[in-house]
Design a protein that fits this description.
single chain; 387 residues; alpha/beta; Rossmann fold; 60s Ribosomal Protein L30, Chain: A; 2 domains; ten-stranded mixed sheet
């Protein structure tokens, strides 16, 4: 497809390929930032009051009939999804029939969002595949609870993450973002920054430069498997560039996983010497096999994809030793500390080490170029998985 105007593919804005879906109260607030910036959006909730306060058009939201919230009970949300998924997904796809990249926002620890997210992503994948649509991507954006939140919420998030990694192994999702709610004091600030970062990479730079990363390059990074993150920072000389990059990397709103990304998107100030800038980038985020770069007169930006969010086993003598999911272990430790206090020093569970699938970080396929049929999981398998 030929680019007619900067930011357009054919008669469509590039961002029209995206549909931002918000699940539950937290997901709705995250998605409202995209709605304000004219993105295709769709909100789903068990609480009509939570939908109403967002002041979004009625045809862009779905309230599950007769539901009045889930009170952090994720199993209740799963049952709602099983009963109403045809209506939910039907309205979503009828409202946004040409959307091909679905950014699904939710709270990992919530009842509604954390319960609905994985089963609805599975059923959305199943429905699109059944309709013969293959050029789609489903990307979860889950918010990790703050450290002070309750034991119940921490355990909800662990269960939600386990399900999400299972979806990853089955190729229902490929790329995913984990937002760290402890990265800022103000959650609204996190939601705004998340939307601005996505928008900046999707829309591209405003400068009319033949060296800009084109639409295919920008969307290609969204098809890269593994966890991902973005951040931007000032720096017109290499010293400030390096210092500010490292500071903003550590302050990212996203959970920072191990290094070794497969791909990096770079908006680089055109005053910088590229060779020195790239050395600094490699030092900060690790080495990568692929990158897309675009010059900018604005602040610098990195989109880092295909990151391993794993840590090696304690048994370093065996190179084939299974690896463990670091983020789940981190949350489990927080939950255990809370359980110990609740039970007067008696810990409920040992820290659980969760086996991770081996990730081939070198694999990155553009949604536009992916002609092979999507792997489909049967309706029965989905229902059995979410019992």
């Amino acid at each position: 497809m030929k680019c007619i105007l900067k930011g357009r593919i054919g008669d469509y804005m590039l961002k029209d390929l995206f549909c931002v879906v918000g699940l539950g109260q937290a997901g709705g607030k995250m998605t409202k930032e995209f709605y304000n910036n004219k993105y295709r959006t769709f909100l789903i909730n068990t609480s009509y009051q939570d939908l109403e306060v967002l002041n979004v058009k009625n045809d862009l939201m779905y309230h599950i009939p007769s539901a009045h919230g889930c009170a952090k009970i994720r199993e209740r949300a799963i049952e709602y999804a099983k009963e109403y998924y045809e209506d939910i997904i039907g309205k979503l796809l009828d409202t946004h029939p040409t959307a091909r990249i679905f950014l699904v926002h939710f709270s990992l620890g919530g009842g509604t969002g954390g319960g609905l997210a994985n089963i609805l992503m599975s059923l959305l994948h199943h429905t699109l595949t059944e309709r013969g649509i293959t050029d789609f991507t489903i990307i979860p954006v889950g918010a990790k609870p703050k450290k002070y939140e309750s034991y119940k919420i921490q355990m909800n998030s662990i269960q939600c993450l386990k399900e999400m990694y299972s979806l990853y192994e089955d190729e229902i999702i490929g790329q995913y973002y984990i937002i760290d709610n402890d990265s800022r004091n103000d959650l609204d600030e996190i939601n705004e920054e998340n939307a601005l970062l996505f928008d900046r990479w999707i829309q591209g730079e405003l400068t009319n430069n033949d060296n800009n990363a084109d639409e295919s390059e920008r969307t290609d990074l969204f098809s890269c498997r593994g966890s991902a993150m973005m951040f931007q920072f000032d720096g017109k000389d290499i010293e400030n560039f390096s210092t500010n990059m490292k500071e903003e990397y550590e302050k990212s709103i996203y959970y920072i996983a191990s290094k070794k990304p497969s791909s990096v998107g770079i908006a680089l100030n055109d005053n910088l010497e590229q060779s020195k800038a790239f050395e600094s980038i490699e030092e900060t985020v690790g080495y990568y096999s692929n990158n897309h770069i675009t010059p900018t007169k604005e602040s610098n930006m990195l989109m880092i994809c295909g990151i391993e969010d794993e840590i090696p086993s304690a048994d370093k003598s065996d190179e084939k030793t299974e690896k463990k999911r670091k983020i789940i272990n981190d949350i489990q430790k927080i939950a255990n500390e809370k359980a110990e206090k609740i039970n007067g020093g008696n810990n409920i569970d040992e820290v659980e080490e969760v086996v991770a699938v081996n990730i081939n970080n070198s694999k990155s396929t553009s949604t536009k170029e992916n002609k092979s049929p999507k792997k489909n999981i049967s309706y029965k398998d989905i229902m059995d998985r979410f019992k």
